[in-house]
């Protein structure tokens, strides 16, 4: 382990990148960790994944031991070791799921398990944010969600005061893993994660005193905010001390990896994120879309859906289909699914498309409804929700095409339906582990290297207007059966 003298140093900038050099990026996801090694030409030369599950100690709870994340990273590093033989690892960057809450002591050790974004225990604490003066609430520029760091901190302060009293800082998931890698190092975060806590004043671009007071915690519990490219320590990897940068949140790092700086990007995985990079903050006391800091000093707007691929996974189980069979069946049915509609909100929603108490399922079924039409309705239903989310972002009309990322958009039928619903051409960017790639780019930047990821893109898929789909979209939007 490095000595304390290495904390906060800037790594030496020792000349141009050579092909033998690699930059590591690790993404701490909700259900697994992804690691990539990017060479100086922007090619992924090694990658590994490790799955894990978070704990549900009670209904509505979502927690995990930070040691699970560290074990996953160590296992992933061991897996890519052979592929990196003979290469010099120049830096490591971390990406992470947003909104989590990790209380750590002065040495960076967790004082209790991490609380993750699906956790709903702090629903009642949201009233503290609703009670803020309109101007203070508007400055947060984000919808209220129970799983965000601020409300969770408020719950912990009320129900586990000993844990809060014993903590030196509250960190986000990627920061907690970094603290574990760099014991005794600085307890810091970056703007992209800080802005997604309901504790960040988007207007002033700093921690909100009013929101911190609402959380009932001392202001010095909030970490210092540093640039994502800043080197804050070194950690031993492959027999050498490797600089570690602050890192960033998973969503803006996926934007960085995709190279999307304007227009619209749709990331579809377990949930869905509709992203408008470069959007100026829009303070609103009752915001329905998110305004978050990116990793380049700017902002992006986001409309988030909890139910994306997770709804399809449920449909797949109900219909007894594999993933390939589900999408093949959907492709075989006509647009409009024979009148069947599917609302994907199986776990409610947190944004403006639907509410927390809404639920999902099929409607419009008849005696002749086929399994293929049920599959088609499921694909269209998620696409309709994505379309509604996109409209909430006021996307400019001149967008050339929509960038599609994530595992949920690989099937051609999904790409076509999204193009049809959005009314714009779409192009799939098959970046595996996009957030980890973005983290590797940050790491490279932190040690003075300019690395641009290779971005192989799929074909441009043009929208094909169909009156049957248009009628289904109208019925879906107005709740018709």
CATH homologous superfamily label of the domain at 4-249: ATPase, nucleotide binding domain
Strand content: 15-25%
Total beta strand runs:
24
Helix content: 25-40%
Number of helices: 15
* Second-tier CATH architecture of the domain at 4-249: 2-Layer Sandwich
Name of the level-1 CATH class of the domain at 4-249: Alpha Beta
Low-confidence stretches: 1-18
Biggest sheet details? 7 strands, mixed
The global form is globular
CATH topology of the domain at 4-249: Nucleotidyltransferase, domain 5
- End-to-end Cα distance: 62 Å
Radius of gyration: 22 Å
Strand order of the largest sheet: 18-19-17-16-22-23-24
The chain-level structural class is: alpha+beta
The averaged pLDDT comes out at 93
SSE layout and pairing:
Blueprint: E1 21-28, E2 32-39, E3 44-51, E4 63-64, H1 66-80, E5 88-96, E6 102-104, E7 114-115, H2 126-130, H3 134-140, H4 149-159, H5 161-165, E8 169-171, H6 173-181, E9 188-189, H7 191-194, E10 200-201, E11 206-207, H8 209-215, E12 224-225, E13 231-237, E14 240-245, E15 248-249, H9 250-258, E16 264-268, E17 272-277, E18 290-293, E19 299-305, H10 309-319, H11 323-332, E20 341-343, E21 361-363, H12 371-391, E22 402-405, H13 412-422, E23 426-428, H14 434-446, E24 460-461, H15 467-478
Parallel strand pairs: 1-5, 5-15, 9-12, 16-22, 22-23
Antiparallel strand pairs: 1-2, 2-3, 4-7, 6-8, 10-11, 13-14, 16-17, 17-19, 18-19, 20-21, 23-24
């Amino acid at each position: 382990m490095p000595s304390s003298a290495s904390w906060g140093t800037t790594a030496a900038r020792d000349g141009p990148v050579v092909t033998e050099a690699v930059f590591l990026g690790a993404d701490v996801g909700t259900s697994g960790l992804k690691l990539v090694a990017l060479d100086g030409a922007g090619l992924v030369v090694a990658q590994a994944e490790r799955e894990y599950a978070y704990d549900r100690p009670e209904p509505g709870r979502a927690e995990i031991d930070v040691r699970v994340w560290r074990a996953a990273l160590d296992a992933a590093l061991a897996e890519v070791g052979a592929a990196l033989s003979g290469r010099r690892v120049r830096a490591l960057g971390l990406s992470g799921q947003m909104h989590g809450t990790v209380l750590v002591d002065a040495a960076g050790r967790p004082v209790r398990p991490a609380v993750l974004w699906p956790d709903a225990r702090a629903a009642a604490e949201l009233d503290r944010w609703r009670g803020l003066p309109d101007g203070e609430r508007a400055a947060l520029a984000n919808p209220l969600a129970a799983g965000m760091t601020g409300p969770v901190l408020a719950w912990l302060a009320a129900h586990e005061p000993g844990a809060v009293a014993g903590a030196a800082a509250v960190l986000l998931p990627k920061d907690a893993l970094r603290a574990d890698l760099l014991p005794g190092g600085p307890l810091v975060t970056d703007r992209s994660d800080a802005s997604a806590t309901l504790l960040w004043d988007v207007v002033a671009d700093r921690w909100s005193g009013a929101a911190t007071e609402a959380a009932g915690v001392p202001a010095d519990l909030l970490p210092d905010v540093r640039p994502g490219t800043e080197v804050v320590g070194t950690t031993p990897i492959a027999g050498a001390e490797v600089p570690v940068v602050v890192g960033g949140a998973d969503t803006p790092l996926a934007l960085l990896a995709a190279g999307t700086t304007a227009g619209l990007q749709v990331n579809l995985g377990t949930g869905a994120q509709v992203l408008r990079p470069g959007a100026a903050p829009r303070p609103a006391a009752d915001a329905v879309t998110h305004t978050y800091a990116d990793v380049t000093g700017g902002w992006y707007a986001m409309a988030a859906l909890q139910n994306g691929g997770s709804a399809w996974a449920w449909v797949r189980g109900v219909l007894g289909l594999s993933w390939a069979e589900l999408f093949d069946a959907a492709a075989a049915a006509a647009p409009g699914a024979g009148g069947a509609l599917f609302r994907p909100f199986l776990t409610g929603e947190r944004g403006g498309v639907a509410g927390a108490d809404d639920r999902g399922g099929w409607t419009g079924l008849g005696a002749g409804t086929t399994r293929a039409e049920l599959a088609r309705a499921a694909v269209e239903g998620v696409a309709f929700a994505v379309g509604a989310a996109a409209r909430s972002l006021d996307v400019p009309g001149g967008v050339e095409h929509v960038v599609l990322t994530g595992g949920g958009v690989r099937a051609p039928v999904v790409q076509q339906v999204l193009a049809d619903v959005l009314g714009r051409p779409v192009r799939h960017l098959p970046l595996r582990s996009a957030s980890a790639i973005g983290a590797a780019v940050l790491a490279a930047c932190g040690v003075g290297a300019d690395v641009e990821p290779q971005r192989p893109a799929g074909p441009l898929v043009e929208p094909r207007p169909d009156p049957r789909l248009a009628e289904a979209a109208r019925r879906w939007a107005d709740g018709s059966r």
